[in-house]
Design a protein that fits this description.
The structure holds two protein chains of two kinds. By secondary structure, chain A is mostly helical. Chain A contains 24 helices and eight strands. Chain A has a domain of about 80 residues. Helix content of chain A is about 55%, strand content about 5%. In chain A, a hairpin with a 2-residue loop joins strand 1 and strand 2. In chain A, helix 18 packs parallel to helix 20 and helix 20 packs antiparallel against helix 24. The longest helix of chain A is centred in the middle third of the chain and has 16 residues. The radius of gyration of chain A is 24 Å and the shape is globular. The relative contact order of chain B is 0.22. In chain B, strands 1, 5, 6, 7, 8, 9, 10, 11 and 12 form a nine-stranded mixed beta sheet that branches. The N and C termini of chain B lie close together (about 5 Å). By secondary structure, chain B is of the alpha/beta class. Chain B is globular. The longest helix of chain B is centred in the last third of the chain and has 25 residues. Classes of the chains: A mainly alpha, B alpha/beta.
Chain lengths: ~475, ~375
């Protein structure tokens, strides 16, 4: 039997390396042991995959679906249900960095394929991932490399590859590349294009394909980050992969996504990392392993900087985490049932339109997820679900509360609810307000189960509305 | 310097993505325009001339009305030193007036702080759209951010008015200022408190509103309508902000049709907006600023245009002295900004300085972060 501290640490791991879990699952995994769970998360092939064929069987339209809404639904359903939680979290991680959006791509199927690529390779080799990205027809189109020609250069992909997908503008107050490097990079990727697609009729759209066109490739000499030669895109990716700036880029992104909110990429040239030692440990893993993302993740999840108390609840939940995490806690949509569309749109209402990031720079994260508009959406969403005592997850929490004794004092009641929704730590002020609210109706007795259930639902609802619930 | 009967209000429409200034206010008499725009040059017969050298994009007819009335100021060659070609960064510079470091405060946040230092009116600034633009961010300045004016409210899922009132009462107390629990927590507390106040008031706006005009069913159309509704409801809002769909003006490819759609949408809705305000005798104290983070490359790339430097901004209003401000940046290769871009000749903070000093009647220097020559469009 795992103790309280193990449960709290496991809950922290499952919130970060996944989308949270039911209390039953947290306790089972805590009993299994921390390192063993991390190893499972890092090696998704060792656990069963989500039963996607079931989804297809009930909803055949999801198979190679063209509509963006269907692809978003399938993704949200997978986030909720996949036992390979870290794999899915990494798909979200890359989607938030390697941004392409359906407002331009205009093909749900291609967006779905891109997310599938992040899922399959998101914990693999970074050099390889950049190659997959550079040959992804959706990205080639999104950042206009398809419009970049030997005789008519389009710098969009060349620039964003350096600024947003690998090096970042700068580190340690220095710039990581020059405008000349951007041009050389763009020239190296000329000819990396998309094959002409088949007409969509009468059989529907076919998947896009990457095609290299040697005749449109600028094969002349270029100098990129100090290296000169007839460089092509592959050479540029080799050079990028060995830059210290690339290791820094990955380490800072991983820290910001998995450990604690820090400043975002535009500030990285001038603002040092929140925890330089943590960054250096991950940078070392990057080079020692030959650019393996999994090696960096293993260092991260097994380190003291990740387990530390002061990074727990030090991240504002992003909207996908808020939506999926709440749904996993309350046990909503663990089976295939109608109504997924509405839920899959919720992250968008909270400012995160999945598969359609606002710009190639992605979303502003951390406290910037919260404004008076999005806070209203977040609270309303979570409170509605947490207060719904019909849902299996909420029923299970109520059952656990009832098992704590025939009678609960208001203080015990509040403490029990907070423990079961996290365990969530709240400020003394919040605790006081919740206790006052609970004392209004006095002690809670299991004698009247309907009343017990009603009050528990109401308390979960108020907890979902707290400022503390905005963090993970 | 102008005087309005009621407190001056600034509406802002941000043209996100980098509008192609060269095809918006077109230097049609300049032969270099044709040389650089072999694919995307607008045929001369379609351009709407505004003088002997310059003309509007063909879809901008509705804006031309304001030009003819002398109520449209056009700013040419707007930008800043060492231009950034990143959307994110350049937008941040326009929002924060901080070209050299990462700023976290917005210039309009500072304006709102001056107007309402104790945050007595939570609707002093209202944004329409998801996510708060950095221009409106300022410690201690509540800005309501409204995705959908029709359904705005808190804990709306609770059944029963008594139940909901009770819950909102607890909510209000939970979100009262917490001391020493960290900057982000403090921020969330004040955001929650203000959301609660703002929601109650804003919910009344759509019911109060009647109108004869029809906005288009686009993001720009609906949010311009929301700005009008909020202004007409007289909540004391002084800055009303919205943004075109993110990066919609980022026309790297297929620009000809995209750009026409964008300007047709913007021009029509700006026209509708002023018509709406005029019908309600409420246009006198409203000025509309339209800006974009940068212009685009002088040469087209065969299908679109890449990120550029100097761009174009507009101000519309009853008190605006219509005209052209600033020089059209030269298209001569020797005069271009490095990389084939238009060189700016008017710092964007000059426009802001005029807005702050002559519209809001405040000292501009601390708000725009320095002394900039005013542009005399007011």
């Amino acid at each position: 039997m795992a103790d309280q501290q193990d449960v709290a640490l496991m809950a922290h791991l499952l919130r970060r390396a996944g989308f949270g879990a039911s209390r039953d699952e947290i306790e089972a995994k805590a009993a299994q042991g921390y390192d063993s769970v991390v190893d499972e998360l890092l090696n998704p092939d060792t656990v069963p995959n989500v039963e996607e064929d079931l989804l297809m069987r009930y909803m055949p339209a999801y198979h190679e679906a063209a509509a963006i809404e269907t692809n978003i639904q399938a993704w949200v359903w997978r986030m909720i249900n996949t036992p390979r939680q870290l794999q899915e979290k990494m798909a979200l991680f890359w989607h938030m960095i390697f941004c392409a959006g359906h407002s331009k791509i205009d093909s749900g199927q291609e967006m779905g394929r891109m997310i599938a690529m992040f899922r399959e390779h998101g914990m693999g080799n970074f050099r390889h991932l950049l190659w997959l990205l550079s040959t992804s027809p959706a990205m080639v189109y999104y950042l206009d490399n398809s419009e970049s020609h030997k005789t008519n250069l389009n710098e969009n992909y060349g620039r964003e590859l350096l600024e947003l997908f690998s090096l970042g503008v700068g580190k340690d107050e220095e710039f990581n590349y020059s405008e000349d490097d951007v041009k050389a990079c763009a020239r190296a990727f000329t000819g990396w294009n998309i094959a002409p697609s088949y007409p969509p009729f009468p059989y529907g759209r076919s998947p896009w394909e990457f095609r290299f066109d040697p005749a449109d490739h600028d094969d002349s000499e270029k100098t990129f980050l100090g290296e000169t030669g007839n460089l092509n895109g592959d050479d540029v990716l080799d050079i990028i992969a060995r830059q210290p700036a690339t290791a820094r880029f990955l380490a800072r992104h991983l820290y910001n996504f998995f450990v604690a909110d820090d400043v975002q990429i535009p500030a990285w040239r001038l603002t040092p990392p929140r925890d330089m030692k943590a960054i250096e440990a991950m940078e070392k893993a990057y080079f020692d392993s030959g650019y393996e993302i999994k090696a960096m993740l293993e260092v991260l999840f097994k380190s003291d900087f990740f387990k530390a108390e002061d990074v727990r609840y030090a991240k504002v939940k992003n909207p996908a985490e808020m939506v999926v995490g709440t749904m996993r806690l309350v046990g909503e949509h663990r089976d295939i049932q109608p109504g997924l569309f509405e839920f899959s749109q919720e992250p968008k209402y909270m400012g995160m339109d999945l598969m359609n990031p606002p710009t190639v720079e992605g979303w502003h994260t951390g406290r910037e997820w919260i404004d008076s508009g999005t806070l209203v959406e977040r609270i309303n969403f979570a409170a509605d679900l947490m207060g719904n005592t019909e849902l299996p997850g909420v029923q299970s929490l109520v059952g656990r509360l009832m098992a704590q004794g025939d009678t609960l004092t208001p203080d015990q009641f509040v403490a029990g609810c907070l423990d079961l929704t996290g365990p969530l730590t709240v400020t003394d002020d919040t605790l006081q307000q919740l206790r006052t609210h609970a004392s209004k109706d006095g002690d809670l007795s299991t004698a009247n189960q309907a009343e017990f259930s009603r009050r528990a639902g109401e308390m979960f609802q108020m907890i979902a509305a707290t400022a503390e619930f905005q963090f993970e | 310097m102008v005087s309005t009967q009621k407190d001056p209000v600034l509406a802002v429409l941000s043209l996100s993505g980098g509008n192609d200034g060269l095809n918006t206010v077109i230097p049609y008499s300049n032969p270099l325009y044709r040389d650089y725009r072999p694919t995307l040059g607008i045929p001369e017969g379609q351009i709407i001339p505004i003088n002997d050298d310059l003309g509007f994009h063909p879809t901008m007819g509705p804006l031309k009305k304001f030009w003819d009335e002398g109520k449209l100021a056009i700013f040419l060659g707007v930008g800043y030193d060492n231009p950034s070609y990143s959307h994110f960064r350049s937008m941040d510079i326009w929002h924060t007036c901080e070209p050299d470091k990462i700023g976290t405060e917005g210039w309009l946040g500072r304006v709102l702080k001056e107007i309402d230092p104790n945050a007595e009116n939570v609707l002093c600034g209202v944004n329409f759209g998801r996510g708060l633009p950095r221009a409106l961010v300022m410690e201690g300045v509540p800005v309501a951010s409204v995705g959908n004016l029709e359904t705005y409210g808190l804990l709306t899922g609770i059944d029963g008015a008594d139940q909901r009132d009770q819950a909102l009462d607890v909510f209000g107390r939970m979100y009262s200022p917490a001391m020493g629990s960290g900057a982000v927590m403090d921020y969330i507390h004040s955001t929650g408190t203000n959301a609660l106040k703002g929601a109650d008031i804003l919910a009344t706006a759509p019911d109060k509103y009647t109108s004869e005009v029809e906005y288009s069913n686009t993001v720009v159309g609906q949010y311009m309508k929301n700005i009008a509704q909020t202004h007409l409801a007289e909540f004391g809002s002084r800055v009303l902000y919205t943004t075109s769909p993110y990066n919609s003006f980022d026309t790297h490819a297929n620009q000809a049709s995209l750009h026409s759609g964008l300007w047709s949408d913007v021009s029509n809705n700006v026209d509708t907006f002023y018509q709406d305000l005029r019908d309600h005798n409420a246009s006198d104290n409203v000025m509309l600023l339209m800006f974009t983070e940068f212009g685009r490359r002088i040469s087209d790339n065969g299908s679109g245009t890449d990120h550029g430097a100097g761009g174009i901004a507009f101000v519309v209003g009853e008190h605006v002295k219509g005209g052209i401000y600033g020089e059209y940046p030269s298209l001569e290769p020797s005069q271009q900004e490095e990389g084939g871009n238009l060189k700016y000749n008017m710092d964007f903070r000059s426009i802001y300085t005029t807005v702050v000093e002559d519209w809001f009647k405040m000292d501009a220097q601390p708000i725009v972060g320095g002394s900039f020559e005013k542009v005399n469009f007011l």
